[in-house]
Write a structure and sequence with these properties.
Elements (H helix, E strand, L loop, with lengths): L2 E2 L9 H10 L18 H18 L5 E6 L2 H13 L6 E4 L4 H10 L4 E4 L24 E5 L1 E2 L4 E2 L10 E4 L16 E5 L10 E6 L17 H6 L9 H16 L2 H21 L18 E4 L4 H13 L2 E2 L10 E4 L6 H17 L2
Parallel strand pairs: 1-12, 3-4, 3-5, 5-8, 8-9
Antiparallel strand pairs: 2-10, 6-7, 9-10, 11-13
Helix pairs in contact: 1-6, 2-6, 3-4, 7-9
């Protein structure tokens, strides 16, 4: 058994993979595979509609919000969000930068609008800035932040407090806890972190934000108004990824919903953070405790050589995906919904023995 801690593409529940395997050659009684069905077929239309219903149910999405399934993942939405929402050359966009992905989103938005950095970008990311230090722009078109920074291991402990419309990237903690959707103008995610295979982005957006009154021309494939009118089928969507997404949604609802998975994520991350905190500095997590990610636990050892040995020894024991992101190094264990407590405890036991053997 391989214990997989990849940051994305990430682990899919074994029960879901077994179902994929069992019906791979015959989707919905059609006699053909899900990777072969037409996106114009009644089988796919039923799949799309069921996915929308299930996502609305699990997140309690209000009726005045639309769900779009889009190409380009979350990175594509870094561009399409400002392109679709800017209506004037004088529009200002507020960005709260807390890590690699929010920094990238802000840089992308600068191509199309006036971006205000709510707090200066720090030399090193270690947490979420105090809200009293944030300088919002009165009348900003929207305020953007990333709820969970996958690379850095930083997660907002609560929704950002602002009077402006909030746009939030929830890629790596999507469906890991309940969300009060009506407090956001838009929520988006790439599904490959915590839901399904790569290649699909999901956008949950308030209806009044979908408008043809825009400053910039928008590529057809990323035009929210056109995609909404076409039920996300303006072009051929990622059929297989949407299919797996729907299976995962049903799996989550069947197994206790977001309340249960939120508690499980707390338990899993606490198990690893406790080992780090009890290691007398052998393992070092620089992230402020109130902003430590439940999804992506990041830490470092005394040297790069020791970290390389940690990754190699882990792989020898079939622990995969724990090497830190190439831009920051260190170690990272991603504890998404599909990662079991058994795997977390296995990783924890390895961490204890590795420390014991190197002290």
């Amino acid at each position: 058994m391989v214990h997989l801690f990849n940051a994305g593409p990430a682990k899919v529940p074994d029960e879901v993979k077994e179902q994929i395997q069992s019906e791979f050659f015959n989707f919905a009684g059609s006699g053909i595979s899900v990777i072969e069905i037409s996106h114009r077929s009644p089988e796919f239309t039923a799949l799309m509609n069921e996915s929308n219903v299930n996502l609305r149910e699990i997140l309690e999405i209000p009726d005045n919000y639309r769900i779009l399934w889009l190409a380009g993942g979350a990175t594509g939405l870094f561009s399409s969000i400002p392109l679709n929402l800017i209506t004037s050359k004088d529009d200002v966009l507020d960005y709260v930068v807390t890590g690699t992905w929010s920094k990238g989103a802000a840089k992308e938005a600068e191509k199309y609008a006036n971006v205000n950095y709510v707090v200066p970008i720090p030399a090193d990311f270690t947490g979420v800035p105090l809200e009293e230090s944030m300088k919002f722009t009165p009348g900003a078109k929207y305020v953007f932040y990333c709820d969970n920074e996958t690379v850095n291991g930083i997660e907002f402990p609560h929704i950002l407090k602002t009077d402006s419309t909030i746009v939030c990237d929830m890629s790596s903690n999507f469906l890991s806890r309940a969300v009060d959707v009506q407090k956001y103008g838009a929520i988006f995610a790439g599904v490959q972190k915590n839901v399904a295979p790569a290649g699909l982005g999901v956008l949950i957006i308030r209806e009044d934000l979908i408008s043809a009154d825009r400053l910039h021309q928008v590529p057809k494939v990323w035009d929210f108004k056109l995609q909404d009118a076409a039920n996300s089928c303006l072009n051929t969507p990622n059929v297989f990824s949407l299919y797996v997404t729907n299976l995962v949604l049903k799996h989550l609802m069947k197994n206790g919903g977001l309340k249960r998975y939120s508690e499980l994520s707390r338990q899993k991350s606490s198990a690893i953070y406790d080992i780090i905190d009890d290691s007398n500095g052998f393992y070092a997590c620089k992230i402020d405790k109130d902003a430590r990610s439940r999804m992506n636990v990041t830490f470092k050892l005394a040297s790069k050589d020791l970290e390389a040995e940690f990754v190699k020894k882990a792989a020898d024991l079939k622990i995969e995906g724990v090497k830190g992101h190439r831009s920051v190094g260190g170690i990272r264990a991603s504890l998404y919904n599909a990662v079991t407590m058994e795997s977390v405890n296995y990783l924890g036991d390895f961490m204890k023995s590795f420390q014991k053997n190197h002290e």
